[in-house]
Specification:
392 residues, alpha/beta, Spore Coat Polysaccharide Biosynthesis Protein SpsA, Chain A, GTP Cyclohydrolase I, Chain A, domain 1, GTP Cyclohydrolase I, domain 2, six-stranded mixed β-sheet, 17 helices, elongated
Length: 392
């Protein structure tokens, strides 16, 4: 078994040494592998990891500085030519034990390799795969081949794991997104659907209706008078409708995305996606629209799925800044596009019907990830699309 590490110039340091959950990625991934197999070895490029760190792990021979992951595979095959090698990159912070166990359990020794990937995709993940000896022998004879090229034929392709993302952390923005770290971590942590265990702990409908009667009495009403007797039940029913997003996992909605047949090189944009929500500070209505776009890499999503993601995330108590980041993070995490852009425009009734009473004020927030953050031309194209659709 071999763990591949590598330097990322865009991260400004070796990704294997970045910390996640109090441990470096190198330590974390080795620990995951050791739960499944006994022989775990590390392949790193010369100079990428300090000697003090390297001394703590069993190594295969150092790959050449220009070979990258292919060099690690060559070194592993040279160490034991008769063995199949499970390659796991350090820069997959979303990888978990269940995903690794599924890969090991799904291995087919009769095939050249076993890897995860979207069904039908020509581009499986080469740095979370099991390579059989004959396949590695091909690489040793042709060092110019990359791991991705080795996975083009005679491969068993397993469905991508639902429990973990296999996206690589190639930039600081990727790192913060995949690990939930960084200055915006608390604001952008994804909110999952309510679990069955959490649902069992919730107050009953009767408890909720009793609370409504208490509120009616608090404002000076008589909850028992004829016009209000059914109000608690109606109120709770309205809440079940307004906040049904808590029963939906937006990440699962995009899980059935499909691989591209012919590579599409331009942005996919949806504009003026209307939403109705409530703010978490006053439970007052927030009504607005969302404009979003992504630049596909390997996966596309049905238009209705993107609309449902917006609905799942807005039919909850929200803070608009968090909502903007959550929509972008969900699309980025599941579809793994080259970039995501999201603009949210909304009117907050906590501002228009109480407090300062300003009925013309609208709030606008935006989130740009990947190519939309780095490419001013792409960003301008998206903003022009929004403007042409009637957005600001």
């Amino acid at each position: 078994m071999v763990l591949a590490g590598g330097r990322s110039s865009r991260m400004g340091r070796d990704k294997a040494l970045l910390e996640h959950g109090g441990r470096t990625l190198l330590e974390r991934t080795v620990a995951l592998l050791r739960e499944l197999v006994d022989d775990v070895r590390v392949a790193v490029q010369p100079g990428a990891v300090p000697d003090a760190v390297r001394a703590r792990f069993p190594l295969v021979s150092d790959p050449g500085p220009d070979l990258g992951p292919a060099g690690g595979l060559m070194a592993a095959h040279a160490a034991d030519p008769a063995a199949a090698w499970l390659v796991v990159a350090c820069d997959l912070p979303g990888l978990d034990r269940a995903a690794l166990a599924g890969l090991v359990a799904g291995r087919d020794p009769a095939r050249g390799a076993t890897a995860y990937g979207q069904a039908g995709s020509p581009d499986p993940e080469p740095l979370c795969a099991i390579y059989e000896p004959a396949t590695l022998a091909r690489l040793s004879g042709r060092p110019a081949l990359s791991p991705r090229q080795l996975l083009t034929t005679n491969i068993r392709l397993l469905p991508a794991p639902a429990t973990a993302t296999l996206a690589s952390a190639n930039t600081p923005a990727d790192w913060h997104r995949l690990t939930g770290t960084g200055p915006m971590a608390k604001k952008t942590a994804p909110r999952k659907a309510v679990t069955p265990a959490q649902a069992e702990q919730r107050p009953s409908r009767e408890d909720a209706e009793a609370a409504v009667r208490t509120l009616l009495a608090y404002v000076g009403e008589d909850p028992t008078r004829a016009g209000l007797r059914k109000t608690p039940a109606r109120f709770v029913g309205a809440y079940e409708d307004w906040f049904n997003g808590y029963r939906t996992d937006p990440y699962a909605l995009l899980g059935s995305s499909f691989a591209q047949v012919d590579r599409y090189e331009r942005i996919v944009a949806l504009t003026n996606v209307h939403f109705e929500s409530h703010c978490e500070h006053h439970v007052a209505p927030v009504i607005g629209r969302i404009h979003l776009a992504y630049l596909p890499d390997r996966r596309l999503a049905g238009i209705s799925k993107l609309v449902r993601v917006v609905e799942a995330l807005t039919r909850r108590l929200i803070v608009q800044e968090k909502l903007t980041a959550e929509v972008a993070r969900c699309i980025q995490t599941v579809l793994e596009p080259r970039g995501v852009a999201v603009i949210v425009e909304a009117q907050h009734h906590c501002l228009t019907t109480r407090g300062v009473h300003r009925d013309q004020v609208r709030m606008t927030t935006s989130e740009m990830l990947g190519a939309f953050q780095q490419d001013a031309g792409l960003r301008s194209e998206f903003l022009a699309t929004v403007a042409n659709a009637g957005g600001n």
